[in-house]
Amino acid sequence: MKNLTLRVEGTTLDTARRIAAERSTSVNALVRGYLEDLALNEDRRRKARHELLKLCRESKAKMGTKTWTRDQLHDR
After folding, report:
1. Is residue 19, in this structure, part of any structural domain at all?
2. C-alpha angle with apex 68: 65 to 70, nearest 5 degrees?
3. Is the pTM of this model over 0.70?
4. What is the full per-residue pLDDT of the chain (76 aa) written as tens digits?
5. With left for phi above 0 and alpha for psi between -120 and 50, is residue 6 left, alpha or beta?
6. Which domain holds residue 35?
7. Would you give the DSSP letter of residue 75?
8. Number of domains in the chain
9. Within a domain: residue 32?
10. Whole-number CA gyration radius for the chain
11. How large is the angle between the packed helices 27-58 and 10-22, nearest 10 degrees?
12. Residues 15, 4: Cα–Cα separation, whole Å
């Protein structure tokens, strides 16, 4: 593991310490968990976007002709 130094407002740190104590953990563990979740979720989003674009490129779907008007859609 690598070390990371953060600068936060005193009130933010006080609140984080209170939350950590309520959860029987440390501020370090809270920050580490947050960063791990952030990295994991970003990786999942990146993979999902890649798969969606791949499906779009490979799709054999065809668009039909437009049979409606804007006014019909908005029922004016």
Report:
1. yes
2. 125
3. no
4. 899 999 999 999 999 999 999 999 999 999 999 999 999 999 999 999 999 999 999 998 888 888 888 888 887 6
5. beta
6. 10-58
7. T
8. 1
9. yes
10. 24
11. 90
12. 20
